[in-house]
Amino acid sequence: MIVTGCGRNLDLSQPRIMGILNITPDSFSDGSRFNQLDKALFRAEEMIREGADIIDIGGESTRPGAAFVPEQEELDRVIPIIERISQKLDVMISVDTYKTAVMNEACKAGAHLINDIKALQDDGALAVAASHNALVCLMHMQGDPQTMQQKPSYTDIVTEVSSFLHERITACLNAGISDEKLIIDPGFGFGKTLEQNFELLGRMNELGVKHPILIGVSRKSMIGNFLNCAIDERLPGSIGAALYALSKGARIIRVHDVRATTDAVRVFWHAQQYQKLRIS
Length: 280
Ligand code: 7PM
Hints:
This protein has nine helices and ten strands. It is an alpha/beta fold.
């Protein structure tokens, strides 16, 4: 299956890696915006060499309890970098934002995919996504980033995530976004306890969507709390979860550690395909 965002194709007959490029003042520190631009471009190039198919550019941390970033500040952070990467590199560009104005400017600057943790619920977001013919990743979140980890609660997590995503899919279709533009994401860590995350992971195949599934578990608390380890020790656990997600139907894996994840995913996929061909 091939999907197309703003004229750029992405072949999903095999798993794809989305590399995370966070643009916050501390992420490429030691000075000017010019310096930041070069460093971000360098990191994007590096991730492409390491196997990234998509570069996901975000200017606001959505970590639990993180500070709000004003619209203009987010624009100042991400737009110059999207422009630069789209001019210099041959790669699919994703913008990680829930703000309509940022989506709009990002698509004008060269983004192909809108990765929205709020699933296009901001005013005007549906119309902006439709007008650019962009790919859209609709993610599930319970609550908002400031408070979502305080008391997540579900009767049945798979049913609730699935019905939310179906409601957002319908909203997209009604706004003139076609089915082939949609990617869905269960939103690991977004208003979910450790146990709820693992239940959702294990039952991902029950979500009942025909759209490609993207997942983000890289370095998250569900890995750290289970293994009881620090952020910089979470790579092996993150890869374990990513491979399990592939076995449950995920097609795009959003990660910080592109090289290691790409190698693991390629071996996993090859072994699986090899066995399928052998027995068919
Ligand atoms: C806790 C929660 C810590 C979230 C860090 C994060 C996702 C995303 C993020 C995801 C999609 C992080 C984040 N996570 N977009 N943006 N799916 N589509 O790990 O799981 O960078 S933010």
